[in-house]
Amino acid sequence: SNPEDVREAQKANQETFFFLDVQSRGEYPRWALNKFQKSGIHIDITDEDKKLLKENTVDYISFSYYASRTSKADTTGVDTNTGNAAGGVVNPYLKRSEWGWMIDPLGLRIVMNSIWDRYQKPLFLVENGLGARDVLEEDDAIHDDYRIAYLKEHIDAIQTTMVEDGIPLLGFTMWSAIDLVSSSGGEMGKRYGLIYVDKDDNGEGTLRRIKKDSYHWFKEFLASSNI
Fold first, then answer.
1. Is 164 left (phi over 0), alpha (psi -120 to 50) or beta?
2. What is the pLDDT of residues 7-20, one digit of tens each?
3. Which of 62, 155, 160, 224 is deepest in the core (most CB within 10 A)?
4. For domain 60-224, which architecture applies?
5. Measuring CA to CA, which residue among 127, 124, 109, 107 is closest to residue 58?
6. Average pLDDT of the residues in 72-86
7. How many other C-beta atoms can be found within 10 angstroms of the C-beta atom of residue 92?
């Protein structure tokens, strides 16, 4: 409700939408050009370049969504431990992952509406998933109910957005089918996969592949889904 916080969020969203603005509208946003000029940055671009950019915008918008971010102008005494390289402050209304990322399925609906309202182009969600420390039990089971809950809530949000809001979505690919090195921390311990890979942060392990509970849930979901 603080206008200063609203302005901070607005600036954060401008930066978030910067690349999409260029790719979808075929031109640099005015705020960015003004910032470049004040910073002494000169973009060597010709009228022909501008014409090509304007005539070759994207046909659809692909994007990733893991968590939402919250902005605040004055962060004095405020928890900023979001664990996200993109920054922000902790949202008291949301739960956090083990890495501090805000778990916000409704935020996905908000983002899809925001992108559509801004560009009116079909969407494609290319990354969505939960990084967590999975435990391999003695019977080779991995009970990742937290990942199932995360995926279900976000897929429900997608379906609601498509049906109730009429937002077109070309496709959805989760992150990820199999455990891999997390790009945010360069570690195996932060696992995203439906399939467990026996390898640790030091590169040690048998590399065995083991299906998690989320694998079986997702397989059943895909078989029974009508979307």
1. alpha
2. 999 999 999 999 99
3. 155
4. Alpha-Beta Barrel (3.20)
5. 124
6. 86
7. 8
